[in-house]
Amino acid sequence: MDFFERQDKARRHTAFLVFYFVVAIVLMIGSIYLVVATLTGAFESRDTSDETTTSVSQPEVFLVTAFGTLGIIGAGSFFKTLSLARGGRAVAELLDGRLVNPNSTDAHERKLLNVVEEMAIASGVPVPQVYVMDGEPGINAFAAGHSASDAAISVTRGAMTMLTRDELQGVIAHEFSHLLNGDMKLNLRLMGLIFGILCLTVIGRILVRARGKNAWPAILVGLALIIVGWVGVLFGRLIQAAVSRQREFLADASAVQFTRNPSGLAGALKKIGGISEGSQLRSHRAEEASHFFFANGLKSGFFGFATHPPLIERIRALDPSFDGKYPSVVLPDTPVEVAPPPLPSVSPLVPPPQPPLMPTATPPPLPVLPPPLPAAAVSIAQQAIVEDIGRPRPEHLQYAVDLHQAASASIKTAARDPLGAHALVCAFLLAEDPSLREKQLQELGRTTSDAVRDETRRMWPQVQQIPDQGRIPLVDVALPALRRLSPQQFEQFRLSVNTLMSSDNQSNLFDFMMQKIVMRHLDTRFYPERRPVTQFYDLRPLARDAGIVLSATAYAGTEDVTKAKAAFVKGAELLSRIAREEIPWLPPTECELAHLDAALDRFAQSVPQIKKNVLSACAGTVAFDNAIQPREAEILRAVADSLDCPIPPFLQS
Amino acid sequence: MLTLSCGFIVLVAVVLVVFIVAGYNSLVTLRNRYKNAYSQIDVQLKRRYDLIPNLVETAKGYLAHERGTLEAVIAARNAAVTANTRAAQNPGDSSAMKEISSAETALSGVMGRLFALAESYPDLKANTTMLSLMEELTSTENKVSFARQAYNDSVMAYNTRREVFPTNLIAGPFNFGPAELFVIDKPEQKDAPKVSF
Q1: ipTM, 2 decimals?
Q2: pLDDT 10s digits, B17-47
Q3: Residues contacting B154, CB < 8 A, separation 6+
Q4: Nearest by CB to A345, which of B13, B133, B139?
Q5: Euclidean distance between CA atoms A109 and A142, whole angstroms
Q6: 8 Å CB contact of B3 and A93
């Protein structure tokens, strides 16, 4: 099952879910109606002694209860879904998560952040926001969000402090598989619907407290609402559990595939069994979100309602020799991961003896990327590219770890700071030509502030040395810091990126795709309402867009027009067969960056299978000469990113 | 009739609950946002406080006759460290924010004086350690001001939401107090001490 099939499956699951909920709601309306009808029937028959009204069929009553119930559930779900539109952070904040500062120097937080960053680089997704639930001593974690760009990963304090690096890596890999399997969107929908049903009980509780002479019918209706609402919640929990349990096994399996280290994940699960808090959560809001978690967050585990398979089954799946005895948990030594000093001259509070640590006067030559792609081409089978989407392997993780460690500390610290990240992206977009660059910097100072201009100027020499394949990972690392800009600062950021793009006449496809990645992922943060909706189920209406994407990719690969044409044909043939329609070859003037932008946006609104076909065709075009240049590879990754199909970094074969 | 009035009660209850929950949640979100924004300032301020002793130590050898300024820098830095610890524990709190604002203003003032002094000592200016420390400090200061802007923006958003109708009806009963801005008065150029030659 590849990435696209899993996405499709998640979408089908959503359809099932809605069906089950409709059934649950119909049943609830029916039972509320029965209660109300009996009540009013009894009431009126006593008042008027009229025999006819005691019959159960009272259309007026039915209409009122049906619309009332639907209205309440609908309003509740709508409201919850709306408040969840902000993505993963909405859930994380609901459960009292604290946003961890990307530049934190606390050893535990640093460990957590590094593990998450490495994992994100390996899967080719932006680094999610990381939260810690300080009030939770147990071991648990969750990932939430609509897509990779608004995802948040949240771990309990217990998980952060008690797990070793390997165990934490297993847990985070599990969460990333949810992220890549498309489970998170499903989970958010589920949360919204369940909340709607929960509303009934809340209103019931209010009605029960009604006071006054004629209040007793209200009290009775309230009681009925509580009972019926409770039945609904049970229904919801049942569905929640059914959907969640099988996906947990899948996520465990993917996590092991990802890290090739079953002992890490198994160790984490064993520790959950070994401590008294287990994986239980204290927050009373944990109920609505219980299906998000790494392990059972609630006490009630009776059969059918547990959102997760039994701990022991999960451990046995990873470690068949497990004897069922949980180890007593020993706290690992605190400095599991020595925080890299963020600055060359971090000194103790007392002034240090002379001479102080030498800070970097000139940026040191970057010891960038130990496994650099050779300048010569890498040959990658196009099939492998598409297969790798959303399914990173241990080699990718190793690559990411090496990349992460090799990147210079000053660049990393800058990328994790809002101003530094702002300057970093601007520096990526600066022109090579010195006079043009100076003009761009002046312009930058005018549109934003002197601070941004100075930082950009300062970073330029370092940024220039970053090879192509190091740029997208760095941008991914910078995204959490950029999400912390205030809305006003984000407007300035957008303005400055636009200015830089338009002032550089020779801005190339690579720069364009870089800024597209950044802006796309940030837009979901600052304008949650702009999320794309699936609109295209067939490739035919997108034939021209496919032509634009393939032609642009072909032109980016080579200067020679005949070669470009040949590369295009290679990709287009594949697509034409599927689309049963000609994919047009376009002259450069008709596939400029603006056209490409629109075309990619349309593809982003298509079903997974179309995305897969287009990406295969792109890969075919890029791999036309059986050699993929690093820059081509990164363009391909960026195109895939804009379609929400993360390709792991390319490895030297 | 009875069912209709029941329906009406239910409807009013729904609207009320949704309204209260939505208002409360929005206030909590905005409060979390400015608290998080402060932690960004905190990181950069701490880095700055770590850099200053290094700078003073480097400058000491060259500025033997300016002990007063150096001591003033260290004193201002220590005061700022204390104030920041307090503010980081309770960002937005009126007295803590005023304290850190004035401590930072004072520190910026003496640092400006130190930089101005350094101008007149060519040997010190040529010292590479000094140069890179000053560079690092300037950059950190830029980051502080950027983070401060983000913090102030989010405090403004919170305070506005707190004061406008209808959330102001919720802010009182649920005890959402006003948050304080973090302002640093720029030492004016003309106030920079005259360097005697």
Answers
A1: 0.80
A2: 778 878 888 888 888 888 888 988 888 898 8
A3: A486, B30, B33, B34, B37
A4: B133
A5: 16
A6: no
